[in-house]
Amino acid sequence: MTKKINKNVKKWIKALRSGKYKQLTTRLARGRGNDRAYCCLGVAGDIYKKEHPSFRYNGAAGYLPERVRKWLKLKTASGELSKNVMFYNRRAVALVQLNDNYGASFEQIADVIENHYEALIDE
Q: How is the chain split into domains, by residue range?
C-alpha cells in the first residue's frame, strides 16, 4: 500500500520545484539575502524556519537538525533511503548524496522524494 505524502514533505517538494532556491553542496545553507544558497535538506530547514521563526540551526552543517527531521517524519537526518535508488546508473542511498555527490537538481531530488517517499519516512 502506498502511503500518502505528509503535508510538510509536500511543502518541501513544492519549494524544491519553485525555482526560488539556489543550490549548493556540503552545507545546509550559506550566504545572505539574494546570495543565499541551500542544499536540498537546507531547503527543508528554510521551510521549517518560516513556520517556526525562533528556530536556529545551532551548528548543524550538513544534516538536518532533529526538529526538522521529525517535522518531515524522515528516518534519518541525511534523507537516507531504506532501499537503493538508481540515479543515472549509479546507486543512491541518501538525498544528501544526490545533492552533494551526484549533481542532482532540486527538481530531480523532488522526483526522488515523491517516487520513493516510503523509503524515506519513519511512520
A: 7-120
> The whole model's pTM is what?
0.92
Q: According to DSSP H, which parts of the chain are helical? A: 7-17, 40-51, 66-72, 95-100, 106-115, 117-120
Residue 85 near residue 110 (C-beta atoms within 8 A): no
pLDDT (average), residues 19-35: 92
Alpha-carbon span 98 to 36, nearest angstrom:
20
**How big is the CA angle at 7 (ends 5 and 11), to the nearest 5 degrees?**
105
Contacts of 35 (CB under 8 A, 6+ apart): 22
